[in-house]
Amino acid sequence: MSPEKPSYIERDCAHLIHPLHNRALQQSEHVWIKGEGAVLTDADGRQYLDALSGLWNVVAGHGRSELADAAAAQMKTLSYCSGYSGSSNPRAIELGEKLAELSYPSINRFFLTSGGGESSDTSFKTARYYWRAKGKPDKTKVISRQWGYHGVTLAAMSATGIASYWPMFEPRVPGFLHIPSPYPYRYESPGGESAGIAAANELENAILREGPETVAMFLAEPVQGAGGVIVPQDDYFPRIREICDQYDVLLVSDEVITGFGRTGRMFGLQHWGIEPDMMQFAKAITSGYFPLGGVGVNDEIASTLDEGESVWMHAYTYSAHPVGCAVALRNIEIILDEDFPGQAERKGNYLLERLQRALAEHPHVGEVRGLGLMAGIEYVADKSTKDEFPVEEKVGARIHQAAQKRGLFSRLRGDVFCIAPPIVTSEEQLDAIADILRESTEEVLG
User: Fold this and answer.
1) By percentage, how much of the chain surpasses pLDDT 70?
2) Is 101 left (phi over 0), alpha (psi -120 to 50) or beta?
3) pTM > 0.70: yes or no
4) Which of 224, 206, 208 lies closest to 149 in space, CA to CA?
5) Dihedral, CA atoms, 67, 71, 74, 76, nearest 10 degrees?
6) How do residues 289-299 score in pLDDT, each as one tens digit?
7) What is the largest CA-CA distance in the chain?
8) What integer is the mean pLDDT of 415-419?
9) Is the pLDDT assigned to residue 3 strictly greater than 80?
């Protein structure tokens, strides 16, 4: 360990509270001082493959001077201005135009936020406003899914379907409920229909239980990311679209992780040929170089906002931030010029094949799965029964520690190891990810 690192850790513990705060974990934390491409450097001089692109967001890789230059140029010209009605700026206007070109055909209007949690709250409020303007004020409920992650503001946490986020902050916001995830590895169809259709019909059942006149929206990630990289069955989302249409429920796609090329398409639901009514985004729009997110709404919702008798009383100080918009515009140029969707598809297929070769036959690897350049390895106590390890064994955490010893850093959901490296990651680095995980798995599980 370098002489500086203990001082960093001591000062950190004295003055910072971290996301998902864990004092014990901070005693042995990484202090990241540099990033280049797919590699992070700790204050002790050790290098690590960034197997999760920071937090799913650094798609263009670390150290892109083009993005720093775009931010600096905008800061020198106009560092900040209000985005409230009555004010705008050229970069925000240009970004709206570019997003309309790239997005689903029916989505042409955008509200900009500082990140994913704000985008979730924006969707909830927009759905309520929309239905109230349509004369259906009782349509307020939000349905989402187990293992869905939508942020941790109080409302977004209530939509998030990962139960460990709830206990210390109960009661959750009323009017949020969850249905089972399609989770192909674990969801069991009641029989007589495909698992994808059965899982989608869980939404219909929930709408009928609650009353269609009370349900405003269904919120879903095309691929559930933080919940364990859960890729749905091919017939799942087309049936979801049918159900939302049948019962007048808005379909909101949470593209915070899947947007801007990660899955091998520009946006996730493009895999299944359907369009949402609203789309949330953040993370990859700036490759994490500036906090920026947003919500795109379809033309019908946009017209309702334009024609509404009441002002849409929703706002953030940093909405349409000119520097964030400038970085996003330059980052989108990189995404298009370097064909990130195509790269993610090719490299993702390569990585998945390498991971399957390295791990799929191991007696405690239940499944290796993925779509585009995102993958998950699910460890189980018994492969034949899919039984999970006891929580106290901390198998996932131990494999993560073993991987870090070998120069690989990522995140987990329990005993599911999540992987989503920067799109610019080389094949040699993808090989290293697979090799390190094989060695780490064998160290911990034999």
Assistant:
1) 100
2) alpha
3) yes
4) 224
5) -130
6) 999 999 999 99
7) 66
8) 98
9) no
Contact criterion met (CB below 8 Å) for 6 and 29: no
Would you state the CATH architecture of domain 67-337? 3-Layer(aba) Sandwich (3.40)
Q: Give the Å distances, CA to CA, from 279 to 33, 61, 181, 282, 301.
A: 34, 24, 19, 10, 12
Does domain 31-51+339-445 match CATH 3.40.50.200? Answer: no
Six-digit token pair at 182? Answer: 């399609």
With b meaning 16 or more CB within 10 Å and e meaning fewer, what string describes 177-215? bbbbbbbbebbeeeeeeebbbbbbbbbbebbeeeeeeeb
Map out the domains of the chain as residue ranges.
31-51+339-445, 67-337
| DSSP string over 402-413 | HHHHTTEE-EEE
DSSP 40-100: EEETTS-EEEETTHHHHT-TT-B--HHHHHHHHHHHHH------STT---HHHHHHHHHHH
| The two three-digit tokens of residue 280, written as one number | 């949330």
Q: Give the integer Cα–Cα distance in Å for 71 and 322.
A: 9
Mean pLDDT of the chain, nearest integer: 97
Q: Is the pLDDT of residue 1 over 70?
A: no
How many CA atoms lie less than 13 Å away from 56 in the CB half-sphere? Answer: 28
The packing angle between helices 65-77 and 322-337, to 10°, is 150
- Mean of the pLDDT values across residues 95-110? 98
Structure token digits, residue 382: 């018994």
Of 294, 167, 165, 161, the C-alpha closest to 221 is 161
Q: Which 8-state DSSP code applies to residue 387? A: B
Mean pLDDT on 10-35: 90
